[in-house]
Amino acid sequence: MYSNSKIAKAVRLAMFAGAASTLAISAPAFSAEENAEEVERIEVTGSRIKRTDLESAVPVTVLTADDMLVKGFNNVQDALASLSSVTGTNTTQSVHGFTPAASSISLRNAGANRTLTLINGKRLNQYPKPLGGTDNFVDTANLPMEAIDRIEVLNSGGGAIYGADAVGGVVNIILKRDYEGLGFKARMSDTSEGGGARNKFALSFGVTGEKGNISTFIEYEDSERLEATDRENFGLHTDKVEHSKFSSYSSYGGRIGNLGGLDEAECTAGGFFYRPNGVCGFDRSKWRDLAPETKRVSVITTYNYELTDDIRMVGRVDASEASSNRNIEPMGIDAFNVNVTGDTLTMTSDQSPGRAEMVDKTLGFGGDFAEADDGDYWYVRRAWEFGPRGSDTENRSFFASAGLEGTFNDQLDWDASMNFARTRVEVFDYGYATSNGMFDYLTQGEHGVSMLDPFTPETVEAIAYEPFEIAESSRINYQFNVTGEAFEMPAGMVSFASGVEWSKQTFASDSDAESKKGAILTTGGSSGKGARDMWAAYLEMIFPVTDQFNVNAAVRYDDYSDFGGNVTPQISAEYRPTDELLIRAVVGSVFRAPDMHRVYGDPTAGSNTVIDFKGCESIGGTPGDGIDRVVDPCNELHISQNTGANSELKAEEGYTANLGFVYSDDALDASVDVWKWKLDDMVNDIDADTVAERYDLYEHLITRDPATGFIDTIDTVAQNLSYQEVSGIDFSTGYKIEMGEYGLIYANIQGTYLLDSEGQANPTAVIDDDLEDTNVVQLRMTGSVNWQYEDLSLNLFSRYIGRHHGTSFRADIQNPENTESDLEVASHITWNLTGGYAFTDDIKVQVGVVNMFDRGPNFDPTNKSWPHYSRSLYNAVGREMFIEGEFRF
């Protein structure tokens, strides 16, 4: 009834599942006889049962190595981000975050920590530094493209098959196997506006003997720094830009809170920017990176060897090392307070508890407070003389897998393996000073010195401080699986897969002593240490009810040392009324173990900028509208923020469901899937912006300055208090046109349309409609057209992000002066054009233009923070041209 060739099925699956697949440049033709000889049972993402039919009840998207090549993707992260089911990414653009050297993706709006990433079906180690300081995830930045055969993306939950984390879906990276020969590939790219140039070199070699193969893939990549000043054409080179009414130069230039600032001559002479409202400010963008400078090298070796006719030894060894450097603006300091009482000045510091220094009012601190009335004041100063704040990040990862696989009695396939992974991240910062060091400088001598005076190079050298953090994570795993046929039913044999596994995870993070005390100006540190182990057992069975109808049932039990056990069932069905049509359905439970950093991490001190809604209202202001005060709670209020762990967290639990169909004939391929997932007891620490906006609910998390009533500190604590429910439709259609002597054209379009996305921050909070209240994108699509003519291939690829509300839509729509259209982000589309030519079977060249029309980010009219667009949706690379050559020997 069906062509069960592995290659034919893989191509069909890619078309069915919406991978926007294109035909490989050098894909060979197979006759029907050859197809028949290629039949074999293989394991496909979403099931552990080996089968000949790759189409199943669960929706899987396939990106082949050739797909990624012809669409112009630079790396694995770019390829994954192109999928419409990917609703968010964290990339190296996040230069202000905790993980500026790492990348991750979120499937179906579930979050990076609820998207499972595998290589050859085996879990990857989690990045030791958590996203946002709390959420564990798998780094996709250091995965070498040259070693990849294809990427299979399960667009549904997979808890019954893979255990925890597979809520939004599963990314399974399948490596090349049995590579033979020697190959070299080089790629060079540059941008039309400068900055962000990239080079990549890959060497592949493999040897096949009578009983086995060993293959090694080595890849090196370097990326040039992309600075904000490189993108003046996108309006990112300066703080004050026309496209955002909320943009303004930072008020952290030089002034004294509650007293006043420098005049224009003093301000500009001091290296600052004099704002039109009379406040001495600072242009931060001129110091900021949009993406860091990076260098990466990775090596993957795979091997297999036949020990006997029925037993094969298999395994792989991975090693990678990456370094990055990123810069942001210099320290903006507001931690030094001065109380005036009579003829005495008393200096204290928020970050130097217990210290106080008293001096004469007239002469103290350069005479800055000689005319001040009794009261409380504070210095506000951009310490530009210290240079940019920056970090050098070193990332080293190692993975080793060794196992056996074989066949028992020609009936059962089995495999057993041991897997070990370790990741170490070292972060060395610069451009900082300690609170005590600055306090000593300001209070030196009999009268102290003014913080508004320029810092001399000698002063900078004396009090500069370089914080550091070293974080490690590891995973060890043992697993045994067996798959085959259990018994016979009238319609056929019942297939099964069963297995057990045991794992142990560890993490340890430590920073310098001053960071752990929270004594570093304008930054915080984190540390913690923890370990957990788990064991699991699973069973999966496929029951052939009729010749056209199969039912698949799976169940898995996981037991964790720190929160207990969890049973995860799943049931699915597949119905094939004709050769061309498959109707499928699946429903199953999912769960997620609490992030280890949420359970074992030490409290983390940091800083943030929020709108203080209550403070703004108390002075008669309007949130979002700057009121040109020296301290501006209505637009930009710098606060301290503390996050903390909770050892009592329990698992997040929920379900996923999918119903759809797949149709394929000789020319047309189409699929539609309606899906939904829901998760309860989600761990949430409530972001600082939400706490500040919904102060009526979260006032217990806020500490206010008793003198002003404005927010001083926000504490965010991890709790099981949220739920999230998301539903949508995935669709794909592709059409193949045979043009005889003029070649072949294949066109494909695929997309994801969110029907609903809602959640609740805690059981007493208002249910949020994300499509109405936030910047969640409802429609995403990609499309491609590929023309293959003899040895020439041309491909046009497009990515579409639909119109959506702005980040602060919910708050801004309350203003009667705003209309809904004023607060929306326009739709966005980019185009990649690539072409490839095979001079011989061993020499190929690919050239292309990524983002050929130099489309910049779409700015959010409600986004009050630089760069005023969502870095999870867009990037500022702009037009990028590349050339890539491949040589086989």
Topology:
Layout: H1 6-17, H2 32-37, E1 60-64, H3 65-70, H4 76-81, E2 86-90, E3 104-107, E4 115-119, E5 122-123, E6 148-154, H5 159-162, E7 169-175, E8 181-191, E9 198-208, E10 212-223, E11 226-227, E12 254-257, E13 260-261, H6 264-269, E14 273-274, E15 280-281, E16 289-291, E17 293-306, E18 311-328, E19 332-333, E20 336-341, E21 344-349, E22 357-360, E23 375-382, E24 389-408, E25 412-430, E26 432-433, H7 435-442, H8 457-463, E27 464-465, E28 468-489, E29 492-511, H9 513-516, E30 528-544, E31 549-560, E32 564-575, E33 581-592, H10 596-600, E34 604-610, H11 613-618, E35 637-644, E36 652-664, E37 668-684, H12 688-693, H13 695-698, E38 702-704, E39 711-717, E40 719-738, E41 744-760, E42 767-769, H14 770-773, E43 779-789, E44 792-801, E45 804-805, H15 809-812, E46 824-825, E47 828-838, E48 843-850, E49 880-888
Parallel strand pairs: 4-7, 35-39
Antiparallel strand pairs: 1-6, 2-3, 4-5, 6-7, 8-9, 8-49, 9-10, 10-17, 11-16, 12-13, 12-23, 14-15, 17-18, 18-24, 19-23, 20-21, 20-23, 21-22, 24-25, 25-28, 26-27, 28-29, 29-30, 30-31, 31-32, 32-33, 33-36, 34-35, 36-37, 37-40, 38-39, 40-41, 41-42, 41-43, 43-44, 44-47, 45-46, 47-48, 48-49
